[in-house]
Amino acid sequence: MKSWTYSSLDKYLTCPKQYYHLKVAKDYVDPPSEHTIWGEKVHTALEEFVRDGVALPEEMSKWTGIVTKLANLPGEKFVEQKLSIDRNFQPCAWSDAWSRGIIDLLITHKNVAVVVDYKTGKRKPSDQLWLYALYVFAYYPHIESVQTAFVWLGTRKIDKDTVTRNDIPEAWQRFLPVVKKLELSHEQDNWPAKPSGLCRQWCPVLSCIHNGRK
After folding, report:
1. Strands 145-152 and 112-119: what pairing?
2. Measured between alpha carbons, how far is residue 125 from residues 48, 90, 96 in Å?
3. What is the pTM of this model?
């Protein structure tokens, strides 16, 4: 196993067999959908707004107020910030990463950081930004707390949380047990199918006996 991301862990939990075909064997691809294409356009527009002051397209103008507040927060801002760490939880090159991720918007101000993730899908719980907070602590030793924010653009709601350095051991326990299972699957070449309602319409692995699209 070369490296893992939050999305790859999530895909593995959804179905190890699907993960294998998409991430290991790579004999199937997950084709872009209307939702993912739209999501990429939105992320690009918000990135350009915060970084360069480019006005949002008309169909996204309803989010101008939200991103203006983010752009006006104090501190140094980084958009689409890539952070990667090695097995010792230390910063490393992206290509040498054990774990890595891309933060939509990172703001650092004194001993506090803000991590923002824009979501165009349905509102749901997620530990993703706890992982991103761990990356931030690795890269910025002076940061004592990370304020996280999921910005649910569809409903214009924001889910906030705070992660401190004291939370680091607890935070890693949200991910390490799953990472261990993923590493074991690699070692044993064991990728069991995990049938669910997603098999019938959404899975791209057409060779699976549970796939309803073939």
Report:
1. parallel
2. 27, 27, 30
3. 0.95
Query: Do the beta carbons of residue 68 and residue 156 sit within 8 Å?
Result: no
Q: pLDDT for 151-207, tens place per residue? A: 999 999 999 999 999 999 999 999 999 999 999 999 999 999 999 988 888 899 999
pLDDT tens across 125-160, in order?
999 999 999 999 999 999 999 999 999 999 999 999
What is the number of other CB atoms lying within 10 angstroms of the CB of residue 14? Answer: 15
Residues 6+ apart with CB under 8 A from 209: 193
- If residue 107 lies in a helix (H) or strand (E), which one and from where to where? strand 99-109
Residues in Cβ contact with 11 at an 8 Å cutoff, skipping those fewer than 6 apart: 18, 19, 22, 23
